[in-house]
Design goal:
alpha+beta; 12 helices
Length: 599
C-alpha cells in the first residue's frame, strides 16, 4: 500500500467562524502523537489522528472544547470509532475516517461493488471496500494506483498520518472523484462527484412509512419514552415522525438509535445555508448500455397503471432501470402516468400535449419529438366511433380501450355500459356491466353512457377493428414499439436544446435531483441520475447544468424525466444513487434494460 505524498497547505479561512491556531490544540496533537509510542514506535493513536483530520477539514471547534473526537462526531466528520481511542489507528480505519471526513460516505456506499486492485482486502465489508474505491479514485488521491497490496491492518505511522491529513486539507481547495467500470459485459457505470461542504449543515431525521396519524403518534410517544422528541406530520400521503432541526449530528444519532431500537430505520436530511453555495458538492451516476446486448422498455407498477410503487418492485429480470416520466398522485400509492407510454408495441397511455416523447424500436432506431395519437373503433356494417380514452376511468359518456396494463379488471360504472372483450380484432365476449376482468393478452373496449346503445348489437365472433394512428401515420414514428414521455428535451444532436416545455421555474432553474435518459454519440443508451437536496453529498442540479454536463460527457440526445424524490437508478440488484427522500418514492413507471433474449 502506498500513500500519495502531498505538500502541506495552510488551514482554510472561513468568514462564518474562523478557526484560530491554538497552542493548546497543537500541544494536544503532539502529546497524543507521541503517546502512541506506548503501543510501539511509529504508530498514531486514533484520537490523535481524528484531531489531525478535524484540523485538516478546517471546521471550528466550540470555544473551550478540547475533545476533538467529540466535536468530529457532532459534525459527522467521522463514523463512530470502534475500540479504544488510545489504540493505534490502522490503515483501514485511517482511510475510512479520511474519506468520511470529506463527505464521501454515500459515495463509498455507491462504490461498494467497484473493482479494487488490492489482493489483501477480501475480508473487508462491502462498505469498507467502497471507502477504498473512493480513496483510490478521488483527486487529490489518498491511495496510489498501480499497487496490489493495501495492508488494512497495518498501523499508521506519524508520517503517513501527516500525509493523509495534508491530502484532506488539499481536498478542501478542490475535490473531485471519477470512477468508470464495467460490472457486466455491455454495461458501463460512470460515477462522478465534485465539490465539498465547507461548513456544517443543518440536520434533521425522520421515521416514515406509517399508515395513519394514530400509528405515527404511537411511535412518537414511544420515542419520548426513550428521551427523544419527535413531531408528527404528513408528506405525500405518508405519515412520519421527524426530529427538530439541529446544528450538530449528535441528536440525529440519538434519534436514529431510538428508532432502530423500536424496529424502524430512520432517514437523515442535511440542509445547507444556501443550495447555491459555490463549490458545494454535486454527485451524478450514469449507466451506459450496449443496445446489441440489452433491450430497453418501460416497466410498470405491478398492480396496474393507476398505482404507484418503488422502482425496485418493477425490475424483475432487469440489469438496470431508471424512474420514468411525470405522474399524478391521487392518494397513498395511487396515481397515474402523465404522457405517452408504449410498451412492446402496445399503446398503454396517451401522449400529453406540448412535451417531448422518446420512442424507439428493436432495430436500434429512436425518435425524439412531439406525439399525437388518435384511435377509432370500426363496427360491423361500417359505423365507427372515436376513442376518447385509454386505460382510464370516466364519469360520463366515453369510448375507452383497456389493456392488462390498467390492472386486472375494468372500473365499475354506474350507468349504461357495454364491454367488448377482443382477441385481436375478434369479439370473444360481450358484457353489460363494468368491473369485468381484463384477460391477459387481450383488450376490452368499453362504451359508456349514451353511446353504449350503438354497441348493444355486437355479439361474439364479430370483427371490431381499432385503428390507431401516431403523428398522422408517419411511417418512422409508426415503426416505434416503445415510448415514454418526459421533458424538456435537453440535448439534441450533441447541442443544448433548452425549451422549458411549460414547466415551472422551480423545475427548470432550481437545484434538484435529476433523472435523464438518452443516447450517447456512439448510439448507446444511458440512464443518468444526479443526486440532490443533500448538503453533504450533493446539492442538486439545474436543468441547464444537467444538460451541460451531459453534453461534455458525449451525449447526443437527452430527455429529462421526473426528478426530485422520484430520481432512482437501479443496477446490479441495488439502488445506486442516494435517494433524496431517504427511501424509494413510489413512482408510476420506469424504464428497464433487459438482456437480449429474455422475456
Amino acid at each position: 500500500m502506498s500513500l500519495r505524498n502531498t505538500t502541506f497547505f495552510g488551514l482554510r479561512s472561513y468568514s462564518y467562524r474562523a478557526l484560530k491556531k491554538s497552542s493548546v490544540v497543537v500541544l494536544l496533537i503532539l502529546v497524543l502523537l507521541f503517546a502512541g509510542e506506548a503501543f510501539g514506535a511509529q504508530t498514531v493513536r486514533k484520537d490523535a489522528f481524528i484531531t489531525q483530520l478535524f484540523q485538516a477539514r478546517g471546521f471550528a471547534a466550540p470555544e473551550g472544547e478540547k475533545n476533538m473526537v467529540r466535536v468530529a462526531l457532532e459534525l459527522d466528520l467521522i463514523p463512530v470509532p470502534e475500540g479504544r481511542l488510545d489504540a493505534p489507528i490502522t490503515m483501514k480505519e485511517a482511510i475510512v475516517f479520511a474519506v468520511h471526513s470529506l463527505g464521501l460516505a454515500s459515495v463509498a456506499d455507491v462504490l461498494s461493488g467497484a473493482p479494487l486492485p488490492f489482493r489483501d482486502v477480501g475480508s473487508l465489508k462491502p462498505l469498507e471496500r467502497g471507502y477504498l474505491a473512493a480513496a483510490l479514485n478521488m483527486n487529490p488521491p489518498l491511495l496510489k494506483k498501480g499497487v496490489t497490496a493495501f495492508g488494512p491492518s497495518k498501523k499508521v505511522t506519524p508520517k503517513e498520518a501527516q500525509n493523509i491529513a495534508a491530502i484532506v486539507r488539499a481536498a478542501g481547495k478542490g475535490l473531485s472523484l471519477s470512477v468508470k467500470y464495467s460490472p457486466v459485459k455491455g454495461m458501463t457505470v460512470q460515477v462522478h462527484r465534485e465539490g465539498l461542504h465547507d461548513r456544517p449543515p443543518k440536520w434533521r431525521a425522520a421515521a416514515d412509512g406509517f399508515e395513519s396519524r394514530e400509528e405515527a403518534e404511537l411511535f412518537r410517544d414511544a420515542l419520548a419514552g426513550k428521551g427523544v422528541k419527535g413531531t408528527v406530520d404528513s408528506r405525500n400521503y405518508d405519515w412520519r415522525v421527524r426530529s427538530a432541526l439541529f446544528d450538530t449530528y449528535g441528536p440525529i444519532r440519538d434519534f436514529l438509535a431510538a428508532c432502530e431500537s423500536l424496529g424502524r430505520k430512520g432517514v437523515v436530511f442535511a440542509s445547507p445555508v444556501s443550495w447555491d453555495t459555490p463549490g458545494a458538492p454535486r454527485f451524478w451516476i450514469m449507466v451506459i448500455l450496449d443496445p446489441a446486448r440489452f433491450d430497453i422498455r418501460p416497466v410498470l407498477a405491478p398492480e396496474g397503471l393507476y398505482t404507484l410503487a418503488p422502482l425496485s418492485s418493477m425490475t424483475t429480470g432487469a440489469i438496470a432501470a431508471i424512474n420514468g416520466g411525470y405522474f399524478s398522485i391521487s392518494g397513498k400509492e395511487r396515481g397515474a402516468p402523465i404522457g405517452a407510454i408504449i410498451e412492446r408495441g402496445v399503446m398503454v397511455n396517451p401522449p400529453y400535449k406540448g412535451r417531448t416523447v422518446l420512442a424507439w424500436n428493436g432495430k436500434n432506431q429512436a425518435a425524439f419529438g412531439r406525439m399525437e395519437w388518435r384511435a377509432e373503433v370500426h363496427f360491423p356494417g361500417g359505423g365507427f366511433m372515436d376513442v376518447t380514452g385509454l386505460n382510464r376511468t370516466v364519469r360520463g359518456d366515453g369510448v375507452v380501450i383497456f389493456t392488462r396494463h390498467f390492472g386486472e379488471c375494468t372500473p365499475v360504472f354506474p350507468g349504461p355500459v357495454v364491454e367488448v372483450v377482443l382477441d385481436g380484432d375478434i369479439c370473444t365476449e360481450v358484457r353489460r356491466e363494468g368491473g369485468g376482468p381484463i384477460p391477459s393478452g387481450k383488450r376490452v373496449l368499453a362504451v359508456y353512457g349514451t353511446p353504449a346503445r350503438f354497441a348493444e348489437t355486437i355479439v361474439p365472433g364479430d370483427r371490431i377493428r381499432i385503428v390507431q394512428t401516431v403523428n398522422d401515420g408517419d411511417p418512422y414514428w409508426t415503426s416505434m414499439t416503445n415510448a415514454i414521455q418526459g421533458g424538456p428535451f435537453l440535448v439534441r444532436k450533441g447541442a443544448l436544446s433548452m425549451e422549458t416545455e411549460n414547466l415551472n421555474d422551480s423545475i427548470v432553474n432550481k437545484r434538484h435531483p435529476r433523472s435523464v435518459i438518452g443516447l450517447t454519440g456512439k448510439g448507446q443508451w444511458f440512464f443518468f441520475v444526479g443526486d440532490g437536496r443533500n448538503a453533504v453529498h450533493s446539492v442538486g442540479f439545474t436543468l441547464a447544468e444537467t444538460a451541460e454536463l451531459l453534453k461534455k460527457n458525449g451525449v447526443s440526445y437527452a430527455l429529462n424525466l421526473d426528478g426530485g424524490g422520484s430520481s432512482t437508478l437501479y443496477a446490479g440488484g441495488r439502488i445506486m444513487n442516494v435517494l433524496s427522500d431517504g427511501r424509494e418514492r413510489p413512482v408510476s413507471y420506469g424504464i428497464g434494460a433487459f438482456p437480449k433474449g429474455g422475456n
